[in-house]
Write a structure and sequence with these properties.
3-stranded antiparallel β-sheet, mainly beta, C-type_lectin-like/link_sf, 18 strands
Length: 256
Amino acid sequence: HGKENVDSRHSRGRGGETTRFHTVNVAQPVRFSRKCPTGWHHYEGTASCYKVYLNGENYWDAVQTCQRVNGSLATFTADQELRFILAQEWDLEEKTFVRKDQRRFWVGYQYVITNRNHSLEGHWEVAYKGSSEVFLPPDPIFGTAMSENENVLCAQLQCFHFPTLRHHGLHSWYAENCYEKSSFLCKRSQTCVDIKDNIVDEGYYFTPKGNDPCLSCTCHNGEPEMCVAALCERPQGCQQYRKDPKECCKFTCLDP
């Protein structure tokens, strides 16, 4: 993680003068474990970040909340991704809109009703067209708050709070009135997070989380690349000092 290694040596030049030079380790490409902002869960399989919001919004408001954090309501590309979501222990508060052992979240699918005979018939669609690899849920359980006038219902994924149920991947899909209030699950691309926990946009320079505040990298697809390390002179006239862990070349003198 960009350790500072300086080996100061002396050699005798012509005429007896002393030449001082530094041997510096070249910064190597490194991978940092933190790829999502605080509060988000990272899944390597899709290079994505996920977060549950508990503030109880209808489907359309949830869509806008996810968009404001550069994401969307979650859709899933494979069973492995869904199993990752179901296995997470989300930071859930007591405030919830369903039973404590069952959690329902808005996700990025809608059920389009095509027939209202004895049983509702229709099909799932992705609410906002994205990857063609997104899989569609199985037949849903229909919610209780349906209106005769609604032709579109919105998807809720139900997962379970108890660890034994959670790790077995038990879940259900609901087609619910889109104006009901519910918690919701946002998904966004993994991102670069700097040493001060700020989000860094693609292509910009930043200092990654780690042990070296003097490391400067370029953000590329959520990874730090083309890293360059700076070196600092020790503070002059100070015997004991402390380096600031988050500011390059900033020292605090500890001398009396």
